[in-house]
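Cross-posted from the bioinformatics board.
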Amino acid sequence: METNHVPEKFIVSIGPQHPALKEPGHFEFTVDGEVVTNATARLGFVHRGMEKGTEGRNYVQDLYLMERVCGICSHVHAMAFALGVEKLAGVQAPPRAQAIRELIAELERIHSHLLWLGVAAHEGGFDTLFMFSWRDRETVMDLLELISGNRVNYSANVLGGVKIDINEKQKDAMHKGMDFLEERTEHYMKVVTEDETFLGRTRNIGLMTKDQAELLGAVGPTSRASGVPHDVRVDSPYAGYADFPVKLITEPAGDLEARFVVRINELFESYRLVREIIDHLPEGELTVRVPRRIPEGETVSRVEAPRGELFYFMKSNGTDKPDRVKVRTPSLCNWASVLTLAVGHKLADMPMILAGIDPCFSCNDRMVTINRGNDSQVWSWEDLRKYGIDYYK
Amino acid sequence: MVKKKVLTPEELLQAGKEALQSWILSENTPENNRLDVVIQTAEIKNCVRALVNAKWGYLSAITALDSPEYTLVEGSNDKVIVPDKGNVELLYHFCNGAAIITMRMKLPYANAAIDSICEVIPSATLYEREASELLGVDFIGTPSTEHLLLPDEWPVNVYPLRKSFTGLEKQNKVEEK
């Protein structure tokens, strides 16, 4: 069989197996020597047909289904769905419920950003930072378990409000946790902005200009690190964000270092918000009644997930089941931008650039094949990671 | 530095509407901060280009809705789907701050084709691939038509997000008959 490879080009195929981290995905990088000239994606290895699944279940069942779209940002999915259903039904959850929704969303952001910090550090060959940040992340995981009973699917939302309340003892634990994490995060900020070896992997790498970020529709910290002032929490406040506003954080540089700095600054902002919410939690009910049958209508529900804008489009038809629920997760937007941006970068930078968007279809630890004409080599993601680290030694 | 005036969502929607003015067939405000405009299928590239040139927000998502034709079963109130009749509606959502403009158009099953907008917004390829394999919309000129989400061995012309799809096994049985 003839091969149709252009002689001096390799295709580096990455994925979909990945024993070490979360979810599978498959990427193919065409490289010319060391430089990437084209990048494509193949997702769907964990496609579970959830959008179709919502059409056959009622709204209450769907809430539990949507909470399971993502294992890291489970709360924001349930919250986006619940807010959408409430809009369609013409009801509003009480202020205390909205504040608790925001509180859990911020705790979730803290755990997600710390998780990312560890993963990104690992990809850069900085395993000490990885172990420290994941150790500290346990603090916030314990707090989430303390208030909801769960570490992953907190199941805090119900249609029309929340099902968990916050008591004084939990507030104390949260204050202590935030104090500890703030001190640690100050240290991390110092590390990612001052450590020479780390800066060698992040400064001026994976550059995305503001115009590119806007055109490619990048979202969340990835776009804010390119100076795009977009944050759904600020632009279009939902849940409790109108009462407990968040400060918009951007960085102009657009490189990997800026993506670290934005996320770490967001951590400080989240610590501040958590303290403010628990100190000024509104009194009152936790739920309002939502009818079982939802009147006919269409709505868009947007929330700011840890990775960026999460978009829900919902159409109801007057029954107790939705007609259509469309979910667009932030990682999908950011994949599109990273695939375009990969072109022109070194193969050795790919692990860090991919990790830099905080992919939810995680792209770590997988198989890598290098095709060179008739010759083909198989690498693991680990090999590619080491290749990247050795390249910069 | 002069600080740019922050526009309200209403002003943003007005500016977006002006950019699209010549292509709007009808418009609707389904809820606060939103504007739905119906445009002609053939004009999608022009409309997207107009919004991009006006720097009006970013493409947030492409939603595809399936609306098949139903018919009543004789002697009862049950509705059944008329096979191969109906349309897929595409919704291009552009977000700008709190404002959302949705461009909508209906494509009949018989001719479910529309120009790809990847020439204007390269990152739209993932959204187009999703709509094309899950609902059977043909994006003319889209850079890749390979499967993004469905397995490689998925049968051709079977679109799981269409209302008529109820599961692969059943579908195959019908074909065998």
